[in-house]
Specification:
15 helices; two-stranded antiparallel sheet; disordered N terminus; TraB_PrgY-like; 5-stranded mixed β-sheet; TraB/PrgY/GumN_fam; TraB domain containing
């Protein structure tokens, strides 16, 4: 095929292939195909490449819809080279209509940056990033996001590898498949952070912040690969649930529901040329291994997305606590300035010049 190019759609999360015309040399006769014919030819080419019974990695789970659509769910570890290979192998084998990744519009930048830039960005947590996080998510949620970025930077430094490699691999491979759309399937991160903070008590917030601030355990690539083992991951998840059940619900369980909803939307039937006949879709989903079991559990359930998208306003008690804390901070700052000013005053009074001046003021003039 010639003169085939990519065009970005109005939807920022979807990319499709558009074709002007394709020319073939058939028995020394140069034949130009019209758009509709070219589309049909490419559709047939992709159909021939698609494996009906592909030999896929153990990390892939197969789900189906009542209409006959198939979803190949690739469970990944976010700092894993082998996960990138699993994603590439799956997309090449099944030639999907849609690829869905566990990203939202607030994290789409990691698809556009190269590995070196991402590695630098992950390690560099500066004042500007703190201000941006607070402006976007509020004080508490913003600070929690910075602490989680610190954890990501810690892992990045330990492994020398930027996060999200499997998503960049999915984006690259999806671009090679004719008519393949690329969707961002995760809940917006500000909603997740705000709901997570609202679900924690003040004591839990303090404990979580303390743990994240002083995280320093060494991490190896072997440890990352273990995260792809479902039994070990479920054990880790159960420990997390025992420690912070509300956090697990908002960060993991609710996003399981959202990802399930997105995958089911992507798995709707697609139109096949030349008559726009509705046919079952083939979808590849790329998500963290920790979400796979939750998506499987929710796959055939009726889901309420609106419930997990709302952010409750802060309670009156929370407002009082924050006001008291702010007042205490300002009070401490004022007291520190007062003590500092007293020290400066004493230092000035001890100067000979000042003492002489005061003595002249006190002595009545003749």
């Amino acid at each position: 095929p010639q003169n085939v190019y990519k065009k970005k759609c109005s939807c920022s999360t979807s990319y499709v292939l558009e074709i002007n015309k394709i020319c073939f040399d058939l028995e020394n006769v140069f034949v130009c195909l019209a758009d509709s014919e070219a589309v049909e030819v490419l559709w047939q080419v992709r159909t021939q490449r698609r494996q009906t019974e592909p030999d896929l990695p153990d990390t892939v789970t197969r789900l189906t819809t009542p209409e006959g659509s198939v979803v190949y769910l690739v469970g990944t570890a976010h700092f894993s080279d082998s996960s990138k290979k699993d994603v590439a192998t799956t997309i090449r084998a099944v030639q999907p209509d849609v690829v869905v990744v566990e990203l939202c519009q607030y994290r789409v930048s990691m698809l556009k940056m190269d590995e070196k830039t991402l590695l630098k960005e992950a390690k560099d947590i500066n004042l500007e990033k703190v201000q941006q996080a607070i402006k976007q998510n509020g004080v508490m949620s913003g600070l929690m996001q910075i602490l989680l970025l610190k954890v990501s930077a810690h892992i990045t430094e330990q492994l020398g590898m930027a996060p999200g490699g499997e998503f960049r691999e999915a984006f690259k491979e999806a671009g090679k498949v004719p008519f393949c759309k690329f969707h961002l399937g995760d809940r917006p991160i500000p909603v997740t952070f705000k709901r997570a903070i609202a679900a924690l008590s003040l004591w839990q917030k303090a404990r979580l912040a303390w743990g994240l601030c002083f995280l320093s355990d060494p991490i190896s690539k072997e440890d990352v690969e273990k995260c792809k083992q479902k039994d070990l991951l479920e054990q880790t998840m159960s420990e997390m649930i025992g420690e912070f059940p509300a956090l697990h619900r908002t960060i993991v369980a609710e996003r399981d529901i959202y990802l399930t909803h997105t995958l089911r939307q992507a798995a709707r039937c697609v139109e096949a040329p030349p008559n726009a006949e509705k046919v079952p879709a083939v979808v590849v989903g790329v998500v963290g291994m920790g979400h796979v079991s939750g998506i499987e559990r929710n796959w055939d359930k009726e889901l309420n997305i609106h419930e997990i998208m709302s952010v409750a306003p802060p309670s009156r008690f929370g407002w009082v606590v924050r006001s008291v804390l702010k007042g205490a901070m300002w009070g401490l700052l004022g007291y520190a300035c007062f003590r500092a000013s007293k020290g400066v005053g004493r230092a000035l009074l001890s100067l000979p010049t000042v003492q002489s001046l005061l003595e002249n003021i006190r002595t009545p003039s003749v």
